[in-house]
Amino acid sequence: MTLAIVAAIITAVIIIGAISVVVLMRARADTEQTSAKTEISQLDVIPGEGAASSDANDVVVSKGGEAAGKSTGSLSRRFLGLSVLTAGIFATLGAKLMSMQVFDAEGYATEAEENLYTNVSTPAPRGVIYDKDGRELVINRMSQTILAEPEVIDDPDTIKRLSVVLGIPVGIVRQRINDASSGAQSQRVVASDVTLRDVSFISEHSDAFDGVTIEARTVRDYPYGALAAHVLGYAGAPTDEELKASPEGRVIEPSDTIGKSGVEAYYDSLLSGDKGDRRVMVDASGNVVSVVSETPPVKGSDLYLTIDSYAQYVADSALANTIAPGGDIGTGRGVAGAVVALDAKSGGVLVMASYPTFDPSHFTNGIPQYIWDLYNTEESEAPLVNRAVNGQYAAASTFKAFTSMAGLEYGFADEEKTWVCGGSWDGFQTGSPQKCWLKTGHGTLDLHGGIVNSCDVVFYEIAKAFFDHGPEGTGEISDTALQDYIRRFNFGEQTGIDLNNESAGRIPTPEWKANQWRNVPSEATWVGGDYTNMVIGQGDVLITPLQLVVGYGGIATGKLMKPHLLDKVMNTGDEVVLEAEDEVISEPEMNPKHLSYVRESLHDMILQSKSAGPEFAAIGVDAAGKSGTAEHTDRPDDAWFVAYAPYDDPKYIVACVIEQGGGGSEVAAPIVAKVMGALVNGPGEDKGPEKVEGSSGHAVELAYTGGGGRTD
Hints:
Mean pLDDT: 86
Structural class: alpha+beta
Number of strands: 25
Low-confidence stretches: 34-64
């Protein structure tokens, strides 16, 4: 700014000086003209009046008169204007020249330098992802990559040679070299994962491949295939939207690899590392002349997760063997499912499995179109969806632990009170009785028996008590008293796990129903049947498997622990830079006596179950838990089971759901027992996780349709 002001002042001084000189010269010229002798230019004779002779004539002397004077003045003014203009032009040019050569010389030199040189970033290897014991779950492997300078696009011979050697159509080679999305001067990726034979040929005949180089780059590799695929996620090239939404402090380029799902996406900033820098000299056309300097990239930080890879392998395998033992969905029980295991003390997620699953390696160099199409067919059952956090299901009888606590809290149940189950119930006198799963009835039961036998009638009676004491009855409690108690266990809310887009589930209320059915007034009123559906986890109740294990953590320990997948982060210097801290979501207010009563009932549920009991006895684990079978009008039942162990000192909580799988104790309990056994007993000697295959993407007609109805 200062230099510009100085230049302007100098320019003004020069212009004023030039004008002054011109004016001075003009003034001097006028003075000389005035003082000069008068020149006679003509003598004229004018005849006198009335005289005929020459004596009567007058002689008139004519000077260089007024006309001549006017011509000279006009010419002088024009000369003055032209002189001023010329002086101004030269003064301006002089000032500009001075500004460029003196004042702005350094700036122009810098711009010239920038035009001559340019910086090109090189990708950094992503950090490694480990399980809780330091076993590698996601690593980087070297990939021989063929790169071409941008100017190779003008060399058809080299393009043809690359096509022949790499087995890639000429048009594709040309398209990849012409792709400037990674930067005008960036090297273009022609092919990745090139065979050593092709690499050797190009290296040995480098003179025939001018502008082509070979570089060993890193790509993601998954030693255990689809193991924990939904937890780990996958990485790939950024979309246009992701490029525009670059996080603060980081510039995402088209050539980058970024996390797309799972912890790869959630902790992308930690895994991504620092890019390298390649400074190159370019000619006037922008072609690279030489590489001036190169700074190598820095690998991203390593993540250590809370995942127990062996228990995860057991869960992944159990889901696949249950749902698709023949390789295709429908050859077993159910069409999809999920398993979640939580450390009851810390909230660390030990297992998170979802089926059908996918192989993350398919996304390493861009997912092939046929694989993408396969993953998005209806029969594939959405393998990219993580059902552990995004699957929303009716809770079924697993909900009875929480509604039992609510009934005890409000005095609608106690240790002595009993009810009679005859197989059906019509307490609201609707003429349309609701059924118990055991249609012959359970007889006389107290709440303990209601939990152990999962008797629906016992819970219908508790639900009716909430309705009768609410606004439609005595008005002693609010119309959301039951819902408010259930929410103490975080249902209807996200758990806060370190994964993106977690589902929140739903606990229905009169307000929710009125809004949901606002266009159908006859269905918008909250009625007693809404309570009886909700109390057994049916109707409009929706939960996720992750919410269920967090909620049962409240029953098992009295605390709701925030679930987390990250254990610690280590930088390239093997220093711990971040460590997860255990976090309590809440400590639900509960009567200790009521809690002890429900815990004992859940313990006896497993001990007395003819299906689940032997499964836990076989692994030598003393557990407490609850089965559930969610009924649907348009498809087979969903199977649920949840358990925590050891019973006296809970350390692990495991839940499983199998969509359209049938009875919970029969189908889901064996999976929960296997995973619990892996956590409690460990893998044993010389055993560990093995590679897991992704689902086939195909399905056949479901062999089991659940025609027998609920069994728990």
